[in-house]
Design goal:
single chain, Glutathione S-transferase Yfyf (Class Pi), Chain A, domain 2, 2 domains, 4 strands, globular, alpha+beta, Glutaredoxin, 10 helices
Length: 231
């Protein structure tokens, strides 16, 4: 049995990736929500996660079926473990070359796109198109990230003929789902084919469930609100 430790659904892009992956693939797990209060060592969040992950961060996956309960942290490691445990779910593409590209795509998301990360924090409950306009005007790193995303997604959709990046849903779509949420919140300019992909990801049952549960949280975490002083 899997336990997946996550943070606030409204804000935690890292948590969203494995949650969407497991949910969309139909893999059962127990969700453990550890709400954000602060990230210092005395915060309840850190105290809780310190016993689960050596990094003290979310997400973390615990496989309770393994003796001693195997604890896995980091989204790439979680995705790789789940793919190994459930090969029938086709979390990675069947084709060898496509699998290699999917891993590369996820690794690029994992380590890159710092412009969007820094200036367009995930905030599902918010609608911030006016902030998006200012960010687009003033932040060349964001424009560069969006240019790369358009190139990347467009190439994959053309090659694998959609509707998802590798044809059917895969780990790559789960990894980029939080980017789609950012595009929804900030309304950054996108060409028609990329906007259509964002809409398809947003419409996935797992993503819709995540969104609806994020909207029900009603938390206002100041440290995750660079643009608003109240909900």
């Amino acid at each position: 049995m899997f336990k997946l430790y996550i943070g606030n659904k409204n804000y935690s892009s890292w948590s969203m990736r494995p949650w969407v992956l497991l949910t969309q693939a139909g893999i059962p797990f127990e969700e453990v929500m550890v709400r954000f209060d602060a990230f210092d060592e005395q915060s309840q969040f850190k105290k809780t996660m310190a016993s689960i992950s050596p990094t003290g961060k979310v997400p973390a996956l615990v496989d309770t079926a393994v003796d001693g309960s195997l604890k896995i942290w980091d989204t790439l490691a979680i995705a790789a473990y789940v793919a190994e445990q459930f090969p029938d779910k086709n979390i990675l593409p069947k084709d060898k070359a496509a699998r290699a590209i999917a891993r590369s795509v996820c690794a690029e998301m994992h380590s890159g796109f710092t412009g969007i990360r820094n200036h367009c924090a995930m905030n599902i409950e918010a609608s911030l198109p006016e902030i998006g306009q200012l960010v687009w005007r003033d932040q060349p790193a964001v424009r560069a990230d969006v240019k790369r995303i358009i190139e990347l997604w467009g190439g994959l959709l053309d090659t694998y003929k959609g509707p998802m990046l590798f044809g059917d849903f895969s780990v790559a779509d789960a990894f980029f789902a939080p980017v789609c949420m950012r595009f929804n919140t900030y309304q950054l300019p996108l060409p028609t084919n990329i906007a259509a992909y964002v809409a398809r990801v947003t419409a996935l049952p797992s993503v819709q469930q995540w969104i609806q549960e994020a909207l029900l949280e009603k938390d206002f975490v100041v440290m995750d609100e660079p643009y608003r002083v109240k909900a």
